User: What shape does this take?
Amino acid sequence: MNLFHMLQERAGAGRPVRAGLIGAGKFGSMFLSQVPGTPGLEVPVIADLSPERARAACAEVGWEAGRIAATRFTDAGADLASDPAVEVVIEATGQPEAGLAHAQAALVHGKHVVMVNVEADVLAGPLLAERFRAAGLVYSMAYGDQPALTAEMVDWARAAGFGVVAAGKGTKYLPEYHAVTPDGVWQHYGLSAEEAAAAGMNSQMFNSFLDGTKSAIEMAAIANACGLDAPEDGLLFPPAGVDDLHRVLRPETLGGVLAREGMVEVVSSLHRDGSPVARDLRWGVYVVLKAPGDYAAACFRQYGLPTDETGQYAAMYKPFHLIGMELGISVLSAALRGEPTGQAQQWRADAVAVAKRDLAPGEVLDGEGGYTVWGRLMPAPKSQALGALPIGLASGVTVKRTVRKGEVLCKADVTLDPTSPALRLRREMEEGLAAAPGILAERSAPP
Assistant: This one.
């Protein structure tokens, strides 16, 4: 609870924390909006494919002309990672291959990394985290994003002595959303295509949140960071409001939806008939707790914590997340404490590509949120056994055989570029870390 005090001590000593931002999109812009109000935090370098767009973003979020003039803008993330003025690299491009390359450049130059790019983290984060730890550097999830906030709640629960039954987030979900393409996304957000275009909103990116892909990616990140399990056949998305979390997200033997304790899951803000769930958790995160014994269960009751009928299961939740506006917590934690705000510890879960429609040989996949595939959560051992195609590698690759709608694609089903750095890093993780005890995790971690 003394992060701001530590920052002020550094600033008073003439050593402000200096972060470099790669990717000045929505998440990055939200972070930039908070920098002027955080004395002791500076952003001397910003990298974006369009430096002019990045300058415009700084002006739009309220930076004064003098601050913009003092900032160096570049179109190369690797250039930023090597800049001696940068202590912490923020990777916010959203592109898996770029994210992995920028993280490796930061590692070479001895910089901490805050990985906003969850797609890259799920593709090869367990391997990267291990390498950063070995180098005495921080590789961190991004605070403000739902995976890091969930990981914080899991850590709090375990540190307080509670069992963790389930953890995850809320979203808007119906089964038919898996087939939605960028052409049909805006009606589900209550917008017209013209309104979305005027606001600069990317249809494919927003569709990733709707079609289930982003949920799979984020739950894989949480499972890998927290030692939790992924459902065997993908996320269930049960409808549940905040008053029902502790009853819905408990084992099937007690009337819940979980195969067992210690799992990730996403709850829907819609019932299957499309009607709204009361007191939904669409924008928030949660953890379901289990009392370690009868005494703790009695304390739950005595202090007004709602429980199920056994008295053992209860839930804590955070109803909102502020995304990039909270990102400074990760930057300061890395620079001042040398600690990540969540970090992959094992390879327990994966996000794999599933056909949105029948796919023919010769078709080119368009990746996350697109027209051809969506991402499904899968246990890492199952993904490796199948040779499943990670959603982070499912863009720009050509299909080699007929794949039916709803079928999981395998790496053997597409033509992958063997020279791709992202593919090489992924293979290193699968072939190297998977063989190391405790990395490719079976269901061994206690909840």
Residues 118-134 form the longest helix (17 residues).
